[in-house]
Design brief:
Elements (H helix, E strand, L loop, with lengths): L1 E5 L2 H12 L7 E5 L6 H11 L14 E4 L6 E5 L13 H4 L4 E5 L12 E8 L5 E8 L1 H13 L1
Helix pairs in contact: 1-2
């Protein structure tokens, strides 16, 4: 696991740009953190670097929003409202698909998650800064984690 300190929105955008350059087919990112931690902000920035031109907004009430990108489609899942729900919602096709899937509040859909993913825990430091813990789970994502650390 690596730890990154984001001192600004620009730092968060820089991290999104780095990760966007490391994306491969079926890339899965899990983003956890309190309300207002910056999960959706990161998703917007990442989607932009993936060539999504639509306005990316939080899918809290929809649970899933799909966006067309230049090389990959971008699937944004907000599982906040799924706490305690364990039913077939059809999300597996997006989570295990060939494009990019970004899940906020992933702990609420842990039963749907594959064995490999990139996990981000975003912590608010009480000011405008964030501490971001990034962990690659599975060999491909461990390599991504190492590259993020090298480039950061």
């Amino acid at each position: 696991m690596i730890t990154i300190k984001s001192n600004s929105v620009e730092d968060t955008d820089k991290l999104a740009k780095i990760i966007s350059s490391l994306i491969f087919n079926g890339f899965l990112i899990l983003a956890n953190g309190d309300l207002g931690a910056g999960k959706t902000r990161f998703a917007k920035s990442l989607a932009s670097y993936l060539g999504v031109t639509s306005n990316v907004t939080s899918p809290t009430f929809n649970i899933l929003k799909c966006y067309n990108g230049e090389k990959y489609d971008f699937y944004h899942i907000d599982a906040y409202r799924l706490e305690g729900v364990k039913q077939d919602l059809g999300l597996e096709e997006y989570i295990e698909g060939e494009d990019v899937c970004f899940i906020e509040w992933s702990e609420y859909v842990s039963y749907l998650l594959p064995d490999e993913y990139l996990k981000m825990d975003i912590l608010v430091n009480g000011d405008e800064t964030r501490t971001i813990h990034i962990e690659g789970v599975g060999s491909k994502y461990i390599e991504v984690e190492k590259e993020i650390e090298r480039v950061w």
